[in-house]
Write a structure and sequence with these properties.
The chain has helices at about 10-20, 55-75, and strands spanning about 30-35, 40-45, 45-50. The chain is α+β, with helices and mostly antiparallel strands and about 90 residues long. A three-stranded antiparallel sheet has the order 1-2-3, with helices on one face. Strand 2 (about 40-45) and strand 3 (about 45-50) form a beta hairpin. The longest helix has 21 residues, at about 55-75. The protein is globular, with a radius of gyration of 14 Å.
């Protein structure tokens, strides 16, 4: 698991996939890039794994929960494809 201030690596993504989504343990993981809030990785062209850059675990959890709720509301109202939190 990356520590705050340390960018995640492909090895970290693979470890987390094996632990939380074992059916994707052998997935192809490709860095997508980093911004002010997240570092993102493509997983088999089907999943985007994002890692918050916020050092506060409580704040990271709050932001993730808020975004998951927002995506659920948007998906129910939008005709466009909307990401599904996993």
């Amino acid at each position: 698991m990356p520590t705050p201030g340390e960018p995640p690596t492909i090895a970290v993504v693979r470890h987390l996939l094996a632990r939380h989504l074992p059916e994707r343990a052998d997935a192809v993981v490709t860095p997508l890039g980093a911004g002010l809030d997240n570092t993102a990785f493509d997983v088999d062209g089907e999943l985007v794994a994002r890692f918050s850059t916020d050092p506060d675990p409580g704040e990271r959890a709050r932001v993730v929960q808020r975004e998951a709720r927002l995506l659920t509301v948007v998906a129910a109202r939008s005709p466009l494809p909307t990401p599904v939190p996993v």
